[in-house]
Amino acid sequence: MSSTDIRLVVLDMAGTTVADDGLVEQAFQAAAGELGVEAGSPEHRTMLEHVRLTMGESKISVFRHLFGAEEKAQRANSAFERAYHDLVDAGHCAALPGAAEAIAELRGQGRKVVLTTGFSRATQDRILGALGWEEIADLTLCPAEAGRGRPFPDLALTALLRTATDSVHQLAVVGDTGYDMLTGTRAGAAVVAGVLTGAHGAERLTADGATHVLGSVAELPGLLAAR
After folding, report:
1. NCBIfam families recorded for this chain (predicted)?
2. CB 160 within 8 A of CB 6
């Protein structure tokens, strides 16, 4: 590989490599209910719209915005995690078609792969365990291990540092949300690829800096090989 080849691929999980199927919204509804927000109320609808707009962001940051006081935000986050874990444990967690194969192919091409998330480490590990993905990537990272979550560049840059990648010009960031795209552009990634299997459409992904928009992560190995 030359000094400008992509040597590190930072991949989002839910919506990019892992099917979401509304799990985030279901877990949010449980969290909001615990804080006394009635499902279907104007307040609930406003909060849910914010959750949708900020998909990809660190979940505790979302709850701090929605509930203000740290104690309430922590209660909501704990309720969210319990609800999400229950959904995962009940079998509502699956890899997106072609995701595991794409990760294997990327690593087979000699690239390092790091899986990142807006969830906590406990939730990330729950998902990895449910899928049998504990060893699928070179590294996994959550916001608490990087400093700040998306849309800041911390996750991507921490991945670069932890894998001893030489330059941001060798970095690709891939995700399904506008916040993933902002993370990639703010980190200076050479490739910032949006996928259409998750929260946001092509218009939002492009507006937030996508250099490429793909149908799914399954197309990524071919894209990078063609470069």
Report:
1. PhnX-like
2. no
